[in-house]
C-alpha cells in the first residue's frame, strides 16, 4: 500500500511592538547570536554562518516534548526595507517561509509585522478545524517568543 504525503499551507501572522526606533530594532533583530533561543525562553542551540552580506544560514536544535528538533534556515536580509525572510531548508517544516518587516511608529518606537507560511507534511488528511488549530498554536508560540525578544531588545538597546 502506497501512502501519499499531503502538504498543507498554514498561514498566520501577528504584529509585535518595540520600544526602540525602527533602524535600531532591525539591526538588533538581524544581529544573530548563538544564545538567541534562550532570549525566546526556548531550550536549544544555534549555529550562525554568514554566507554573504545579505544571506545567513541558521542551524538550530530545539527541544519539544523531550525530543530534539533539528532545522536549518536560510535568511535573506533586505536592509533598505528593514525586512528579512527565513526559509526552512531542512527539518520537519521543509520549505516553510517566514517574512519579517520592521517599520517605524513615530521616531522612538517601531513594530514588527510577521507573516508565516508553515508547510505541514502529513500522511493523514487534516480537517479545516485541525489546520485552524495548528495556525492558532503556531501564532501563539511565535508571538510569545517575539514578546520575549521585544523585552530583551528594550533592555539591551536601551543601555547602548
In short:
The chain has helices at 22-29, 36-39, 128-157, and strands at residues 6-18, 44-52, 55-64, 67-78, 83-90, 97-105, 109-122. It is of the alpha+beta class.
Describe this entry's structure for a reader:
The protein has 160 residues and is an alpha+beta fold. The protein has one domain (6-157): Alpha-D-Glucose-1,6-Bisphosphate, Chain A, domain 4, CATH 3.30.530. It is built from three helices and seven strands; from the N terminus they run βααββββββα. It has helices at residues 22-29, 36-39, 128-157, and strands spanning 6-18, 44-52, 55-64, 67-78, 83-90, 97-105, 109-122. The chain has a seven-stranded antiparallel beta sheet with strand order 1-7-6-5-4-3-2. Strand 3 (55-64) and strand 4 form a beta hairpin. The longest helix has 30 residues, at 128-157. The chain is globular. The termini are far apart.
What topology does this entry show?
Layout: E1 6-18, H1 22-29, H2 36-39, E2 44-52, E3 55-64, E4 67-78, E5 83-90, E6 97-105, E7 109-122, H3 128-157
Antiparallel strand pairs: 1-7, 2-3, 3-4, 4-5, 5-6, 6-7
Number of domains: 1
**Shape from CA axes?**
globular
What is the mean predicted local confidence, pLDDT?
Answer: 94
Describe the sheet with the most strands: 7 strands, antiparallel
What fraction, in percent, of the residue positions are helical?
25-40%
CATH topology, which one?
A: Alpha-D-Glucose-1,6-Bisphosphate, Chain A, domain 4
